Automatic annotation (TrEMBL):
<feature type="binding site">
    <location>
        <position position="77"/>
    </location>
    <ligand>
        <name>substrate</name>
    </ligand>
</feature>
<dbReference type="InterPro" id="IPR020103">
    <property type="entry name" value="PsdUridine_synth_cat_dom_sf"/>
</dbReference>
<comment type="function">
    <text>Responsible for synthesis of pseudouridine from uracil-55 in the psi GC loop of transfer RNAs.</text>
</comment>
<dbReference type="Pfam" id="PF16198">
    <property type="entry name" value="TruB_C_2"/>
</dbReference>
<comment type="similarity">
    <text>Belongs to the pseudouridine synthase TruB family. Type 1 subfamily.</text>
</comment>
<dbReference type="GO" id="GO:0160148">
    <property type="term" value="F:tRNA pseudouridine(55) synthase activity"/>
</dbReference>
<feature type="binding site">
    <location>
        <position position="180"/>
    </location>
    <ligand>
        <name>substrate</name>
    </ligand>
</feature>
<dbReference type="Pfam" id="PF01509">
    <property type="entry name" value="TruB_N"/>
</dbReference>
<keyword id="KW-0413">Isomerase</keyword>
<feature type="domain" description="tRNA pseudouridylate synthase B C-terminal">
    <location>
        <begin position="182"/>
        <end position="248"/>
    </location>
</feature>
<dbReference type="InterPro" id="IPR014780">
    <property type="entry name" value="tRNA_psdUridine_synth_TruB"/>
</dbReference>
<dbReference type="GO" id="GO:0031119">
    <property type="term" value="P:tRNA pseudouridine synthesis"/>
</dbReference>
<feature type="binding site">
    <location>
        <position position="44"/>
    </location>
    <ligand>
        <name>substrate</name>
    </ligand>
</feature>
<feature type="active site" description="Nucleophile">
    <location>
        <position position="49"/>
    </location>
</feature>
<dbReference type="InterPro" id="IPR002501">
    <property type="entry name" value="PsdUridine_synth_N"/>
</dbReference>
<feature type="binding site">
    <location>
        <position position="201"/>
    </location>
    <ligand>
        <name>substrate</name>
    </ligand>
</feature>
<keyword id="KW-0819">tRNA processing</keyword>
Length: 260
């Protein structure tokens, strides 16, 4: 069944709290959502790496004007890292660059985590979407070209150990915008003298939005591909997942003096 054959792109407004699956870029994921909703205007509020899963707020129509406020909101993550192995991308998608014995104990690990809490400078990774001369840094990095990057001030509000199993640690991270979890894990590995890289990363919250409010792609696609629904029914069912503009205006009361 071909959807929206005789329907133009829709002017819809609201915020959709998506649970991004692993293995897809934020850009490609956004394109899928735009097609499912047949939306005219759509934008997300900060990228997640292909390896990462979790919350990706997507703004439709008039709600896109609030995207910058979500982009600059604090975030919370759960990250699993392997100690003793470093990669060029700082995660398991990259090439291994070093392998070292892990000699840290629980006391040293807690000292390490304590040193990362608070305001600190962080150097963004070369494998990132930050741009240099109009191109994202990862395109240079893939060619083996590296540039010095200026440190950026970030704030780690909380960093706690959930569990440690052999050389795998699982951390809970509450941080400011602009924080690269991959870089933080790599820096933790350097502090411990053994190297480390991200093997799993999940974003749990963005600002006031929490994980229990997320919807996954499979649920949306089940509605879209259900032949028993006509286009109007599909629109109604999909749009029901959107946070409406009146609620958004209340949630962002400090900036709602802007015209919508």
């Amino acid at each position: 069944m071909k959807r929206y054959k005789n329907v133009g792109n829709r002017d819809i407004n609201g915020i959709l709290l998506l649970d991004k699956p692993k293995g897809i870029s934020s850009g490609l994921f956004l394109n899928k959502i735009k097609k499912l909703f047949n939306a005219k205007k759509i934008g997300h509020t900060g990228t997640l790496d292909p390896l990462a899963t979790g919350m990706l707020p997507v703004c439709f129509g008039k709600a896109t004007k609030f995207a910058k406020y979500l982009l600059h909101s604090d975030k919370r993550y759960k990250v699993s890292a392997q100690l003793g192995v470093s990669t060029d991308t700082f995660d398991s998608d990259g090439t291994i660059t070093s392998v070292s014995p892990v000699q840290s104990n629980d006391y040293i690990l807690e000292q390490c985590l304590e040193s990362f809490r608070g305001i600190r400078n962080q150097i963004p990774p070369m494998f990132s979407s930050l741009k240099y001369r109009g191109l994202p840094l990862y395109k240079y990095a893939r060619k083996g070209i590296h540039f010095p990057r200026k440190p950026r001030s970030i704030h780690i509000y909380d960093l706690s150990l959930i569990k440690k199993t052999e050389n795998i640690i699982e951390l809970d991270v509450h941080c400011s915008t602009g924080t690269y979890i991959r870089s933080m894990v790599n820096d933790i590995g350097e502090y411990l003298g053994c190297g480390a890289h991200v093997i799993e990363l999940r974003r749990l919250s963005v600002g006031q939005y929490i994980s229990s409010s997320m919807i996954n792609l499979a649920t949306l696609e089940a509605i879209f591909y259900n032949d028993s629904f006509d286009d109007v029914q599909v629109f109604c069912k999909l749009d029901a997942f959107l946070t409406p503009m009146n609620m958004i205006m209340l949630e962002f009361a400090n900036v709602s003096n802007e015209k919508c």
